[in-house]
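Hi there. Long-time user, first ticket. I'm pasting a complex I've been working with (about 227 residues overall). I'd like to know whether the download I got is complete or cut off, because the file seemed smaller than I expected. Thanks.
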Amino acid sequence: QKEVEQNSGPLSVPEGAIASLNCTYSDRGSQSFFWYRQYSGKSPELIMSIYSNGDKEDGRFTAQLNKASQYVSLLIRDSQPSDSATYLCAGPAISGGGADGLTFGKGTHLIIQP
Amino acid sequence: EAQVTQNPRYLITVTGKKLTVTCSQNMNHEYMSWYRQDPGLGLRQIYYSMNVEVTDKGDVPEGYKVSRKEKRNFPLILESPSPNQTSLYFCATAGTSGYNEQFFGPGTRLTVL
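Hi, the file is complete. Here it is re-exported in full:
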C-alpha cells in the first residue's frame, strides 16, 4: 500500500504570514497529488492538484512537487483566519489487484492566529 | 449545479438494524467511492466502483456492501451494523479514474448504539 505522510500539527501561523504544509510519499512512481481543505465536520474540498515537478500557483495557494525528494508542499500566502482548517494531502493508491483511487494523509491542522 | 448528494446526513440506529446510505451524482462520473473518517485514522476507503456493475473492495470493506446498478447512484449498505461502524462517511466521485480529482459529498454521520 502506498503511503502519504503528514505532520498532524497543529500548525499555528499569524494572520498575514505564509503557512507551509508538507507531505511525503512512499512511491517514486506517483505522478499526481492533491490538496484538500476540510473544515471540522464538513467534507474535504479540493483546492489544488499538481501533476508535474515544480510549482503550481492559484491565487494565494502554491503547490510544490519534488519527485526526487518525494515530497509535496502547499504554501498559503497572506493567511486568513478562514484558512484555519485541516489540510489533507492525497496521492494515487494501488493496493494490488487494480487501481483504487487516492490514498490520503491524516491531515495537518492549521490555525491562523488573528 | 454539479453535486454529490448523500442521504441521510445524520443517522442514529441500533446494532443489527440494516441500513442504507444513498449517494447520487449528476456529473456523469464513472468512478465512485465510499470512505469512512475516524479521529486519528484519517480517510479510509471502504469500496469503490470504476463503472456500472463494477465494484471492488477498498482498505476496510468488512461489514459493508455496495451496488452500482446505475451510473449516478452508489448506495452503501450495512446489513448488520455494529458500534465500531460509528463514523463519518463520505461518498466521492471522479471522472474516468480514481486517480483524478475526487469530489466529495456532504457526509453522513452515523451512530450505532
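A couple of notes from our side: DSSP finds no helices and eleven strands in chain B. Chain B touches chain A at residues 31, 33, 40-43, 45, 48, 50, 56, 58-59, 88, 90, 92, 94, 97-107, 109 (CB under 8 Å).
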